Known about the structure:
Strand content of chain A: 15-25%
CATH architecture of the largest domain in chain A: 2-Layer Sandwich
Strand order of the largest sheet of chain B: 2-1-5-3-4
CATH topology of chain B: Ubiquitin-like (UB roll)
Number of strands of chain B: 5
Number of domains of chain A: 2
Low-confidence stretches of chain A: none
Largest sheet of chain B: 5 strands, mixed
Oligomer: heterotrimer
Mean pLDDT of chain B: 94
Distance between the termini of chain A: 40 Å
Radius of gyration of chain B: 12 Å
CATH class of chain B: Alpha Beta
Structural class of chain A: alpha+beta
Number of helices of chain B: 2
Low-confidence stretches of chain B: none
Radius of gyration of chain A: 18 Å
CATH class of the largest domain in chain A: Alpha Beta
Mean pLDDT of chain A: 92
Helix content of chain B: 25-40%
Shape of chain A: globular
Largest interface: A-C, 29 and 38 residues
Structural class of chain B: alpha+beta
Number of strands of chain A: 8
Largest sheet of chain A: 2 strands, antiparallel
Number of helices of chain A: 5
Shape of chain B: globular
Amino acid sequence: MAKFIMIHPDKCTGCKNCVVACSYEKENHFRPSASRIHVYSWEREGISVPMMCQQCSDAPCVSVCPTGAMHRVFGSSLIEYDSGKCIRCRMCVQACPFGNAVYDSVTDQIIKCDTCHDDPSCVIACPVKAIEYVEENVATRSRKKAFATKFKEAFQEVA
Amino acid sequence: MVIKYYATLRDITRTKEETWQSPTPTLQDLLNALCNKYGSTFQKWVSCENGGYGCLSIFLINGQDYRSLNGLQTQLNQTDIISIFPPIAGG
Amino acid sequence: MMFGWTGVILRVNLTNGEIKKEPTNMQDARLFIGARGLASKILSDEIDPKIDPLSPANKLIFAPGPLSGTMAPSMGRYNVVCKAALNGVIAASNSGGSFGPEVKFAGYDMIIVEGAAKKPVYLWIFDDEVEIRDASDLWGKNVPDTTDAIRAVTDEDAKVACIGPGGEKKVLFANIMNEMHRAAGRSGVGAVMGSKNLKAVAVVGTKPIEVADPEAFEKAVIDARKKISEHPVGGTGLRVYGTDVLVNILNGVGSLPTRNFHDGYFPSADKFGGETLTAKYLTRPKGCFSCIISCGRVTKVTNPKYAGEGEGPEYETAWGFGSDCGVDDMDAITKANYLCNELGIDTITCATTIACAMDLYESGYITLKDTGGLAIPFGSAENMVKLVEMIGNREGFGDQLAEGSYRLAKRYGHPEFSMTAKMQEMPAYDPRGVQGIGLHYATSNRGGCHVRGYTISPEVLGVPFKVDQHATEGKPQLVKTFQDLTAALDSTGSCLFATFGIGADELAALLSAVTGVHYSTEDFMKAGDRIWNLERLFDLKAGFTGKDDRLPDRIMKEPIQTGPSKGEVSHLDKMLPEYYKLRGWDTKGVPTEEKLQELSLI
């Protein structure tokens, strides 16, 4: 079964612990602009949403990559980036509908989430479990159940 | 005797305050009785890691901290107001 | 390579438009750490403490710390340092969010703003590119609208610190707001910004902050995070109920100042406590940069009369607009909080100045003629909310209140009605019911203030240990220790709430690992002592003396009337001489030469 990073904006406090953890894991210093995860906050509404590579099954970044640098790992749901094959044409950056593949001029690399090879630092750093690394069907099942619980409670109140 | 609950203890006891009439001569007796009534979640908040009560939770008897009175052995009267706070902070 | 510190200070002169980048003095950085400490050192060196705080001679320093921007837990704070508009002391007003870390990511240890612009401007900083831009279109806009407008023409994710109408009109307790809802609240730092015609500072930073000893740092972070998150109050209590949970406990021990400190107990306090806030107003908790506590409150009022959305109230605000004004209407209290944030004024001084006006009104010293027809006995929630807007815009009677309670009470011939220490309003813990905090209010270098020596922790909450709130014994040492620890902590970039879990040991370990400069626990505490004395020297040179280390007569002579602390007054006189002695000050409260030498201050 495949795992993926599930976000829960309802729980996100906008603290950016995930952002700093990612930058430290990947670049050994604190530089949010090099983080593979970003948190956008709408201050008027008080809502924050974490964003990172979704590891799309039919990934535009892979389709447009002329050298195979951006590729799916065989037998895995992970999309990996091979810096050696990359010609820095930034087609992947253009193609990603979420803006989750980014060219970093400091390191001359494409940066995007690789789930820290199955052990994402951002998830460990999150103090409120607003991002979780979970089995795909388990994740959606518990979200379904959470909504079902709300129905149940509403039903109980009526009854 | 009136017992008032605050913060998370209101969720656990499902009340803000209650009138208490059972005989509980000391604060220790009262806490024993309340832990029996409300179970382990309540007990977790009011007790210490190494057994006993208090540590970070706060018990006030008529607004006086139990530690400045006779501690858990403080005698209780029927007219007392007991306030129980789980560990809290702010600023 | 620099570790923790960036090694660069940005200096902007608004009078002549000069923008300079200077190396950080690393010897001073080691001694004064950063943020509150290092910026206070620079301010003390560069300005005459006797200047008019609203003159171009004052400087305004935005200062994060060496730990800001790292993953050390709860490091979202920065300090605004200047000579205070409200009371002429050295101000270091502390705010959270992400603005402080962003200044570091842009490559600066701090931003020093000098002089004054001829017309409204804002500062736009994108790493090395720094511009002074015209802000004529922004003048008059409130905080959220200013923030949005600046983002629209700079960067949609820029971190913006700005003033609202309060700062523009030099309300003496105007604050500086960043990211709409976070406030550098006290001392009137926003009025100083307004006097410089500086509407905002907007920053985007993309540079790295390096760590000297990654192995030690990771260990220290894991340790600190664990201690904070496993602590019952740091880990869950604050996130669930926010700081407002204190209303009931302070009322429970009879130390919730009520009706301008006439009393210390308010029977219906539960109506504006954290439990009520959580049940009826809270949308979700919010956290500052790298925070694992998330005490911030995103809230909403649905009552059409006071409808709004925003953040807060925090405990101090709920108390100020609550029991101190004799009000228990949480809709009105929350609305007053939103208005303060939008207008950019300090909730504590605003609320307590209104309380002072209510007190003067009830005593007949202020009449309907003075207020422009507004009846303001204690408990008038609706007119309280109206007054907030009038103060922020300096309209009508609000113009008089915009000067703070000290000047207001003096104007009407009754300075004893002002509940201030060194002309700044005392916050939400009655110093008659809690003796140590009274000694702290009286001696705090920025006047009445709770966040520089929060002895409420041991005196009321029992964290990390419990002492008797009514006792005076041992309090001078307790106050000194808390003041020193907080001075050092504030200088790292840390939030005070981290101390609900960690202390000097953990902070010294984090600081050493990040900067590569070894700080023992003793070094760290000594830095705090040094910073405290540096601030004291500034205040003494500004004209304050030991005679100003006092509390209002009401606190010294009029006992609390009802509730559990009934009959108590402050015993400040019993504690102050011992405090001076522990500080190494003479009997007049002046640091001795030996003390200053010991702290490398001369």
